[in-house]
Fold this protein.
Amino acid sequence: MNLRIPGPTPLPPDVQQAMGREMVGHRDSVFQKLLGEVMAQLRHFYQTQSDVLVLTSSGTGGLEAAIVNAMSPGDGVVAVSCGAFGERFAAIASAFGGQVERIDFPWGSGLDAARVARALEGRDETDLLLTTHNETSTGVLNDLAAIADVLGSLGRRRPLWLVDAVSSLGAADLPMDAWGCDMVVSASQKAWMAPPGLAFIGVSQRAWTRMAQATCPRFYWDLAAAREYAVKGQTPFTPAVSTLFALQTSLLRMRGEGLAVIVDRHRQLSKQLREGLRELGLRLLASDVDASPTVTAVCLPEGVSAVDVRRELAARHGVVVATGQGALKNTVLRIAHMGYCSSVDIDRVVTALKAVLQGRHDC
Amino acid sequence: MNLRIPGPTPLPPDVQQAMGREMVGHRDSVFQKLLGEVMAQLRHFYQTQSDVLVLTSSGTGGLEAAIVNAMSPGDGVVAVSCGAFGERFAAIASAFGGQVERIDFPWGSGLDAARVARALEGRDETDLLLTTHNETSTGVLNDLAAIADVLGSLGRRRPLWLVDAVSSLGAADLPMDAWGCDMVVSASQKAWMAPPGLAFIGVSQRAWTRMAQATCPRFYWDLAAAREYAVKGQTPFTPAVSTLFALQTSLLRMRGEGLAVIVDRHRQLSKQLREGLRELGLRLLASDVDASPTVTAVCLPEGVSAVDVRRELAARHGVVVATGQGALKNTVLRIAHMGYCSSVDIDRVVTALKAVLQGRHDC
């Protein structure tokens, strides 16, 4: 099967095998070494000297953890959104009592940093800024370097900056410290090539300081407790041990390949897929400038159902892709190229899609 | 290795293998079938016609989900506690704004239903009653049938009843519907013989009704969303797919053995271990009446360090047990017999402990 949905992504064979390891206790030395190694590797890919903590949850749990640790009810929140996951991040902040102002960009476009700057400058105070690095619903990579510049110029009025990097980190460049991100969330089943069940959260020193005052109720997501336990190579609650074994294995693979090479490979895969889709006469949802290195959204010809094409791709060609989300559900296909993916996989997707679309044309 | 801690517990070989299965998409038919089957099996072991939902988190996440879905800030909560996990359940309710009255019983004792009844009758109104079925920190199984009787006699003043069954369900009898439990939480890495990373929560009709009014903020734990997705064989957020494959396999094993046989086997294992420990001249923390079928806490002789004995058991005999919790940390060992455990495993524990204690005596 050629699993080309934007997570869970395919497991390399050694990662798959690592899932089948004998269980160990989570208060034992084997586990302490495991967690310590995984956290150190995550810091490398996050390009940070700060803590990167591991939570047992999906990526959305990681986003909730960021909000409830950083926010107090009533806090002013600016949420930048250009798709379903930007909306979700904003919805979480609203659910926990944030006064959320959304800055929306059209689905398929990336954010415009100048507009974000104007919005921030026009407000009395903003406690939190929420951004999505890679918008999985539309295949857009937002220019967060530009946001880093905007925040750098705000001085003392700078909000705490929370980044959803669930479907970018490990495949795209996101230097947390250099860009001054305060909380950065990712998840195991995306570019990290491990099964779902673990979220990661990088936390800056500024975020730790803010957290001490933040009053949203929290228990399972309490990052202060997570840090306290992490120092001794443990987690406050029983972690997904097997998934950590898998992640340890995939992180070693990633170190072997190297971050720069990984980032370049993903860019190349995106380019290859976009060229292949254009050759089929299809329109791409995002521009080349906004294009995501991990997932590509392609518009199908008028009258062709994405749900039907998706079904045929799976049934006849063993290629599993995703349909669009929200209003794009039946007009867009999303094809992922994150993590364990080669140019051969992309070639197979394009060839299969060509066959399915020609088959429909012949009917 | 003879992993005898109260979770994570050892994996049967076929469960271990199931973890290494190829990844599948969580919106695909394979997954829909998987989740549907797992939920049906869980309902069997919960002995309920109600929903049993699956969350990607540890058991503590499941307890938090119960609280934030059932409770509004300011609600009156009675929390019955006889150990660390009873305290944790109460602490979660407090963290989210519950007005918590704790009814504490000594560590090593079970609850006294008459005292709980008097406390409930002496209060104006109680919104939630929290109880722990199996107190993992002390090896005590609480008599929840007696609590069911107490609640049955309260009529309209009956609180919503939340049960922590993390370390009992799947090994002990807990007929959710017959006893009238409203929310019952368990977790994959305990008697269910699967890796950690999944929590389960059974939800009564009364609980669903209450939930519609409960105002604690929630997003990741939103059970109404989980139920809405469960109807179509899905989860709102990416679930721990591999762990669900493992759980599917272990549930099939459990159905093969049968609930009554499983419950009896655990009682026998507890009895065998307690007799073996008494023959070593050791005192058991819980009485025979209160004794847990899944974990046994044993007091070490004066001056013998539980931390040291634990280390020697692991290093010399490959037997991994847990020390006590809280004040019992260095005086008590906790030995688990939940899930994948046979009388041979128990025999090995007792033999190894005998050797370690004799070795210390000889020094």
About this structure: The first helix of chain A runs from residue 13 to 19.
